[in-house]
Amino acid sequence: MSQTAPNAATTSAGPLHTLLTRDRVAVAIKVSSKKRMLEELAELLSRQLPDMDQHTVFAVLNERERLGSTGIGDGIALPHGRLNGISEPIAAAVRLHQPLDFDAIDDKPITLVIGLLVPAEATDQHLRILSQLAGAFSDSPFRREIFKATDADTLHRLLT
Hints:
By secondary structure, this protein is of the alpha/beta class. The protein has a single domain (20-159), classed as Mannitol-specific EII, Chain A. It is built from five helices and six strands, in the order βααβββββααα. The protein has helices spanning 34-46, 54-67, 123-137, 140-148, 152-159, and strands at residues 20-29, 71-73, 76-77, 80-83, 90-100, 110-119. α1 (34-46) crosses α2. It starts with 19 loop residues before the first strand and ends with a helix.
């Protein structure tokens, strides 16, 4: 009998176990546009990067978004980018107060945003993390739990 590896939703560690700290999680954020949401995300991501300017992080996220929406469907977006000056990938999570039109693949508004920054040279790692996140968020029970989270502590616990 062969065994398969459990997915992130069924293990004790969530999809962002090593990437997300509690101070980069925000809930009930009010934004009126994709640009404002990316600015909020850039602020969260740059909090633990003393040598990194929030505007640089925003520019990286915005540039990637210009290539095509990072809205993966089911109310979730994964804005991401590669960044010079960091040595490890980092993530931030934002639960929006109201759904936001994000040109997602399913044309539905988003409510949950996971921002990801990886070192500029980490192409394979970048793709692997995005694939793991997409896999975790394709799990309906896991998504339902995430969307029920009403505070940052609960959202952080579920994602890590």
